Amino acid sequence: MNATPGAGPGAEPGPGVTAGGAQAAPRPPSLLALPSYLAGHAARIGHDALVEAVGQHGLRLPHFATLTALADFGPLPQHVLADRLGFQRSHLGGYLDAIEERGLVRRTRDPADRRRQLVELTGEGETLQRRLWRVAERSQDSFLRGLTEAERETLTKLLRRLLDADDRARTAEAR
């Protein structure tokens, strides 16, 4: 018995292989049966579209993520912002330097704890974040053009469930 989908005579065609045996996609059929493989490649396609869209505004994806987190949460201590974004704290400083130089964020001492820096959007940062959000949505429309609206919602819900489960597992491990 063949363990590999689509392998060997008489085997059922695996993903990416037509009934006539012709290759429907240039990828190994067995890998196309692995959700993590599919998710990784699909993520790269969407990621590349988003990176290009944000890059047209002179920013990198971590800059956009930082602006968006601040738009969602409001001012945050710098270390909390890094943790919520999943960034290494040392890397966030460099990202903040770049967008602070452009006048998009400001860092101030936290009045509750002078050892901490609070990060907040400026008016210009809020305006650019809203514009970038529309750009990001358009990039996702392009990325997901092969799916119906219902399929997009289902995909998003399923991906959120995976991320939520991972977040819960990481929180439990940290305890």
Structural class: mainly alpha
The amount of helix comes to 55-70%
Report the portion of residues in β strands: 5-15%
Mean pLDDT score: 86
Tell how many strands the DSSP assignment holds.
3
H/E topology pattern = HHEHHEEHH
Main pleated-sheet profile: 3 strands, antiparallel
Through-space gap between termini: 46 Å
What is the overall shape? Answer: globular
The rounded Rg comes to 21 Å
If you had to describe this structure to a student in words, what would you say it looks like?
There is one protein chain. This protein has helices at 35-55, 61-73, 78-85, 89-101, 123-143, 149-174, and strands spanning 76-77, 105-110, 113-121. Helices cover 58% and strands 10% of the residues. The protein starts with 34 loop residues before the first helix and ends with a helix. The longest helix is centred in the last third of the chain and has 26 residues, at 149-174. It has a 3-stranded antiparallel β-sheet. It has 6 helices and 3 strands, in the order H-H-E-H-H-E-E-H-H. The protein is mainly alpha-helical and 175 residues long. Helix 2 (61-73) packs across helix 5. Strand 2 (105-110) and strand 3 form a beta hairpin.
